[in-house]
Amino acid sequence: MKMQGLNHANIWRFKLTTATMTLIPAAVGINYVAKALAEGLKLPVWLGSLGTFLASMLAGPVAGAISGFINNVIYGLTLSPISTVYAITSIGIGVAVGVLHAKGWFSSASRVFVSALIIAIVSAVISTPLNVIFWGGQTGIAWGDSLFALLVANHAPVWLASFIDEFVLDILDKVCVAYLAFFIYRQLPQRMVRFFGDDQQ
């Protein structure tokens, strides 16, 4: 069954209603717990955008962007200061997910994969300059940074090595998160999906 939320014409509308005031903190909490779990278990992915995906899918790109931004700031203030730097990346992810979802790119498992690749590119393009400026091009994920070191050792430009490091990690992370969000969204009651969509109209 195809689930409907925001229609294409309304994706950029945003109202700070009771629904969104409930959704955004919930999305921030999901992001926070997922990212903390991934870091605690030393997983090769971040998982910190799951709540952002869900907020964007339910209430549009603005709600998702706000959720991602707030989470990065809070996470940076409590567990990992470097997280705050990537708040702008989370905004980009929220916008990309919201637009792709509104255009029907989360309607099937095969389309979700394509969406994840697009979102990974968006994330990598935004994050790479931050990685270079603040961390010399590395991401903080061991196997990705091993690839970065190998590329630099073979005389690849730092910016290119950093982008490849970030992109390969983002592909794995965003594919995992996109499918998690896709399956969670499809299990939500239709009434809930329509509630958030109608609330922004």
From TrEMBL:
- What keywords are assigned to this protein? Membrane, Transmembrane, Transmembrane helix
The protein in question is named Membrane protein
* Transmembrane portions of the chain: 12-34, 46-66, 73-100, 112-134, 141-161, 167-185
